Amino acid sequence: MSTTAFQVNPELSAVAIGFKNPDVTLIADIVLPRITKGGKKFAYTKYTAADAYTIPSTKVGRKSDPTMVDFGGTLIYDECVDWGLDDLVPNDEIKAWEAMPKPATGGPVSPLVKSTKLLTSLVQLDREQRVANLVFNAGSYSGTQQATLSGTSQWSDYTNSNPLTALMTALDSCIVRPNKLVLGQATWTGLRQHPKIVQAIYGSAASAGVVSKEALASLLEIDEVIVGAGFVNTATKGQTATYNRLWGKHAALIYVSKDAADADQPTFGFTAQFEDPIAAVMPSTKGLRGGQQLRVGESVKEVIAAQEVGYFFQNAVA
């Protein structure tokens, strides 16, 4: 028996799961990958890094017991949060669409499908903002694993700064070497043109040019460079739109592994997910002829699990 007044629609749910903005725009699922949990409440172990790197006495006397060690992992309890939006599609619009002649391919999109796509896009955009605010936040990193750049140290200063040295030093400082470099679009635009990066990749004294994400990842010996290019309108509803980048002028080196998160091993962060995203409908009496109230949403919780395996550059470019 259904436990909700909304009837989940499998076809529309498939749209909610499959619809997304271009990969180059939204990166939340790459930065903090989803881990499906059996229930809305979940738990994970937060390890004490020192326990894994402090060498106890391993020598055992002829009639002695080996040294007893105690690992300081803490079990953290958390819960997925529901995120969703509603839309009302009038029956007039649905009937008008049903009456339209349908070509063999293409043709007008069902208003329910169109609404599902638009709602899903907004739910995803909200998630992107949450992840950006979490990953590009000094509070998500240990005190020694971050730097605030200013003036000549910012990577937009092509004469005085050296982002290659800064990145390689940061990579070496983490107890687990990061495997991803996360950049806001403005940071990437400046970094990929930096003479020291261009020279290192092309092996020449070139002072101008651009490099690819794949080339920079290879130079740094990491898995990938991820660039957040999405926009958000920050103006109050009804006011003239003001568009800003979701990911600011920062950079973060992080070690993220979905396999590690699944195995309850140290990873910078992950997203706990309860079941699949849903799209559900129910009759509505609003409007002269009523309509279909559509709900799209998901239950997730973004988690920073190991601050020690990340490094944050705040204000990487001016």
Give a verbal description of the structure.
With 318 residues, the chain is an alpha+beta fold. The protein has a single domain (7-49, 73-314), classed as Alpha-Beta Complex (phage-related protein like fold). It contains 10 helices and 14 strands. The strands form 4 sheets. Strands 1, 2, 5, 12 and 13 form a 5-stranded mixed beta sheet that branches. A 5-stranded mixed beta sheet has the order 6-14-11-7-8. Strands 3-4 form a two-stranded antiparallel sheet. Helix 1 packs across helix 5 (111-135). The radius of gyration is 25 Å and the shape is globular.
The number of domains? 1
- The proportion of residues in beta strands is 25-35%
Major beta sheet summary = 5 strands, mixed
Structural class: alpha+beta
- Mean pLDDT, rounded to whole units? 89
CATH architecture title: Alpha-Beta Complex
Give the count of helical stretches.
10
Query: Element order, helices and strands?
Result: EHHEEHEEHHEHEHHHEEEEHEEE
What is the CATH class designation?
Answer: Alpha Beta
The number of strands is 14
Query: CATH homologous superfamily?
Result: phage-related protein like domain
Index terms:
318 residues; alpha+beta; phage-related protein like fold; five-stranded mixed beta sheet; 29% helix
What does the secondary structure layout of this molecule look like, with pairings?
Blueprint: E1 7-8, H1 10-18, H2 28-31, E2 34-37, E3 41-46, H3 49-53, E4 74-79, E5 81-90, H4 91-99, H5 111-135, E6 146-148, H6 163-173, E7 180-184, H7 185-191, H8 195-202, H9 213-220, E8 224-228, E9 231-233, E10 243-245, E11 251-254, H10 258-262, E12 269-284, E13 291-304, E14 310-314
Helix pairs in contact: 1-5
